Amino acid sequence: MPSTTKSNDTLIYKGHPLMRKENIIYYGSMSDSHIIMMQILENGTIKGLPVAKRVSVQLQQTNPNVRIKERIVKRTEKDSLWAAMDIASIWLGRALGTK
């Protein structure tokens, strides 16, 4: 379950910060070598509640000296935010050398 830190109310998921701006979710810290960028491509509703139907997931390098297109290490699309978060935590953990 996501938690927040007391100092700045940043959402933390499996030990990494989780930030959202409109339909883009960033998972990880820019001070690390890699981050995950998830973009909600399609929304829908289930029982009257809004849900993400299609989510693009990208593992990216944070090195500012690398061109933007070359920063993308891996990419995929998932059919729910849950599936996207699952693969994102695996990819980020492997890229950073953590479990």
Care to describe what's here?
The chain has 99 residues and is α+β, with helices and mostly antiparallel strands. The protein is built from 2 helices and 7 strands, in the order ββββββαβα. It has helices spanning 68-71, 81-96, and strands at 3-4, 11-13, 16-21, 24-27, 34-46, 49-61, 72-78. A 7-stranded antiparallel sheet has the order 1-2-3-4-5-6-7.
Total count of strands:
7
Number of helices: 2
Q: Kindly report the spatial arrangement of strands forming the biggest sheet.
A: 1-2-3-4-5-6-7
Overall, the morphology is: globular
Determine Rg (CA atoms, Å).
14 Å
Which whole number gives the mean pLDDT? 89
Q: Could you list the spans in which at least 5 consecutive residues all have pLDDT below 50?
A: none
Structural class based on helices, strands and sheet pairing: alpha+beta
Q: Compute the separation of the termini in Å.
A: 17 Å
SS strand fraction: over 45%
Topology as a string of helices (H) and strands (E)? EEEEEEHEH
- How would a crystallographer describe the biggest sheet? 7 strands, antiparallel
Relative helix content: 10-25%
